[in-house]
Amino acid sequence: MNRMQLAEIKEMIDMAIKIKQNAYAPYSKFRVGAVLLCELGKKYTGCNVENSSFSLTCCAERVAIFKAISEGEKEFKALVLVSDSEDFCTPCGACRQVMAEFALDMPVYMGNNRGLYQVKTVAELLPLNFSL
Ligand code: THU
């Protein structure tokens, strides 16, 4: 990865930390922020949105992806994810399947609360994804 790309990932981590403040997580208190980089450089943010009917909760990654899709984006270049935890924030299985629908080769940067991250492609995160 070149310096330009590293700078962009760093910027996306900062954006994810910021959008995490908008998380609506009164039940779990687990706030997540996501930033999705699209083909022409536009970035879409997302935070988790919980509901008292717990299964209606939507994860930060899916919020960002659905925002991008609804704006006509189809090509995703990278996704950054952070929580407040010192552990790397890994996407849930449902979000992995949603990512796999659009971008198997996309790198997913899974950050922690110290600005460090681990990176894996969607295909690595979800081998044998379901597809029709
Ligand atoms: N959450 C996400 O936003 N993304 C994930 O990949 C894992 C879980 C949210 C959902 C819920 O609001 C909280 O984290 C605890 O599960």
Give a quick precis of the structure.
This protein is α+β, with helices and mostly antiparallel strands and 132 residues long.
Keywords summarizing the entry:
alpha+beta; binds tetrahydrodeoxyuridine; 33% helix; 132 residues; 5-stranded mixed sheet
Order of helices and strands: HEEHEHEEH
Largest sheet: 5 strands, mixed
Using the CA coordinates, give the radius of gyration.
14 Å
Superfamily at the CATH H level? Answer: Cytidine Deaminase, domain 2
The helix fraction, in percent, is: 25-40%
Task: Assign an overall shape.
Answer: globular
- Which range does the strand content fall in? 15-25%
Distance between the termini: 33 Å
CATH architecture annotation name = 3-Layer(aba) Sandwich
Number of domains: 1
Bound molecules: tetrahydrodeoxyuridine
Q: What are the low-pLDDT stretches, counting only 5+ consecutive residues below 50?
A: none
- Strand line-up across the major sheet: 2-1-3-4-5
